[in-house]
Amino acid sequence: MDVSQAKQEHLLALKVMRLTKPTLFTNLPVTCEDRDLPGDLFDQLMREDPSTIKGAEALMLGEMLTLPQNFGNIFLGETFSSYISVHNDSIQVVKDILVKADLQTSSQRLNLSASNSAVAELKPESCIDDVIHHEVKEIGTHILVCAVSYTTQYGEKLYFRKFFKFQVLKPLDVKTKFYNAETDEVFLEAQIQNITTSPMFMEKVSLEPSMMYNVTELNTVAGGDEGESTFGKMSYLQPMDTRQYLYCLKPKPEYAEKAGVIKGVTVIGKLDIVWKTNLGERGRLQTSQLQRMAPGYGDIRLSLEMIPDTVNLEEPFDIICKITNCSERTMDLELEMMNTRSIHWCGGLQSISGLRLTDTFLKRTYEYDDIAQVCVVCPYTNNEC
Amino acid sequence: MVPFSMRLLHAELPQYLAKPQEALDRLHNLKTVCLADYVLAVETYHSIIQYEPQQRVQLLSGIGRIFLQIGDVKTAERYFQDVEKACQMTGSQPSHTTCVLMNRAFVSLSQNNYTEAHASFTEVLKIDPKNPVANNNAAVCLLYLGCLKESLGQLEGLVQQDPALYLHESVLFNLTTMYELESSRSTQKKQALLEAVACREGDSFNTQCLKLV
To answer: Is the ipTM beyond the 0.85 threshold?
Structure first.
């Protein structure tokens, strides 16, 4: 919507056109059987049509480019591109034309013009053209303010402004969930929903970890040079569709020692999302720093360094535990292993229990049961157990 | 206008009359623009290639364009590379060279490189000066490069030289859009176009492309 300020007739006219990418023209082919009355007529018409593909006239998605027909929607992270044209509608030569384009948001005013110098003169029917680009970084109302100042051939200095208002919408809905593993690893599940009106190709969704962590991305299936995406052939996200991305964060060795001691809120990292739509129209967003509440460990933390997934029945196996003093006092600890009842099974998940730590200073005992599960299998080939 | 369901019926009918090939040919037409299901469209194109190997180059290029429409430029480029390989195998025909150049132009477009895209379309015009798609597309690139006057001049010139070919819906859309950008007197120019069209086309012509209302 544009609101013109001028009450007087100006010699120059300013026009603005948003330059989204062009679209490929589609045909609707009409065909018939060879023996039908029209015969070859439809095929002939299609062959004569300049926008059909020669040799494959029935193909609908042609190669003819069509300019954007309306302003369309604009989303945070996209690039706003616009053609700005100042045309001399009069019959006189106009001098000293200065065209300025600013973008006004609720928080700031940005200058978008490519050049800030005046054009010496503009003959009748000629125009001054500029194409401006701006990566949109705020949601909400934006106003493109175009100001034109010029001097008539009689020396009169004139000035007018035009305002073009548009809304920037939110393109993605991002939800995050953290899962703590028995080791020091943290898993992040990022749920991303496309809340625009057209399909999106997700080019990159990566997690940039904070300095404490190393990250492993878990969204490709290993195999081949590149690895296939876990989403398979559906490489695009339809409007209102959601996808979950998974990442594993491991504290760096220099921070691993302290990992058990960290209390409260820690900064994990941020998500960097790049998407593309029609003919490579690009959008990019970064989330703010994602935070996680460290789970409360109490005074002592018992974590697992090494444990096998599967063990054989009636065979001893090793586990390595790490005990961290999370309190602010010194402790003197004794370790005791208690036998628990084990059910005579030929398999299944068994829980490791019975670890006891006693603080000899305070005479306090900490009990650790169900610290992990192992899968117990029968090593014998027949059902001898 | 034939209703869509009748088209669908018409497309499916041959398979019951033991002509599955024909049914497939017609079905691919319909499926393509209901591109809500791109995956299915691409698979359909692949099966068509097996039945119509002589259209391989055009069909592979078509699939590439589908991926460009979704925004998956990398996969589109892979298909265009397959097109180049297919062209090399069959020997150089001008139509194949044109195809490769057009595909290259679309990739440049997708990478925001309008200068390169314009250069590729111009290369096509060296081989085939009357190619209406290359002419139209080159003019469109000029607009994105900030050359409105030049772009308009090119399109208007084409319409005047060969109205039979260029008084086409897509070209007219582009012309009227540029008239609106150029000046406040676009209505007169659009009406002039309407008169030119009225002499040539029948009642079924889609006059909405002239944006007179």
So the answer is: no
